[in-house]
Amino acid sequence: MNLNISGNGLAGLKVMVIDDSKTIRRTAETLLKKEGCDVLTAVDGFEALAKISDQKPAIIFVDIMMPRLDGYQTCALIKNNPQFRGTPVIMLSSKDGLFDKARGRIVGAEQYLTKPFTRDELLGAIHRHVVTV
């Protein structure tokens, strides 16, 4: 993977944002595109799983509360696929409970961000799990 890391630039890094909230998807997409990321979005786990196998993102941000397939189920499916087991998954939630964080870890999530997240939190997660400078 070729990453152009000039300053905080993350040019060409494929990042997926899965959230049923258009506002959250747009916010994350805008922040990440400013850093040079190639952003993929999905409204739920079903849409995301098809895109993940086609696009192979380097990191995935997934909302917990979604219709049809929630974030925990989506994360578990990603982590159970040998091809994507090593892809970092960051849970997004408006809840900040210990139970939610623990459940995220059980299904294999690398980190848990509480919404509304900040630019620094998003970029921090990417730097922590993908970009080793």
Explain the overall architecture.
It is a single chain. By secondary structure, the protein is an alpha/beta fold. The protein has one domain: Response regulator (Rossmann fold). It contains 5 helices and 5 strands, in the order βαβαβαβαβα. Strands 2-1-3-4-5 form a 5-stranded parallel beta sheet, with helices on both faces. The longest helix has 13 residues, at 22-34. The radius of gyration is 13 Å and the shape is globular.
Summary, kept brief:
α2 packs parallel to α3. Helices cover 41% and strands 18% of the residues.
> Can you write the helix and strand succession as a string?
EHEHEHEHEH
Kindly provide the radius of gyration, computed on alpha-carbon positions and rounded to a whole number of angstroms.
13 Å
Let me know the largest β-sheet.
Answer: 5 strands, parallel
Judged by helices, strands and strand pairing, the structural class is: alpha/beta
Q: CATH homologous superfamily?
A: Response regulator
Could you please say which CATH topology applies here? Rossmann fold
Amount of beta strand: 15-25%
Shape: globular
Task: Count every beta strand, where a strand is a DSSP E run of 2 or more residues.
Answer: 5
Tally of domains? 1
State the CATH class. Answer: Alpha Beta
DSSP helical segment count? 5
Helix content: 40-55%
Helices, strands, pairings?
Layout (H helix, E strand, L loop, with lengths): L13 E5 L3 H13 L3 E5 L2 H11 L3 E5 L7 H10 L8 E5 L4 H9 L4 E4 L4 H11 L4
Parallel strand pairs: 1-2, 1-3, 3-4, 4-5
Helix pairs in contact: 2-3
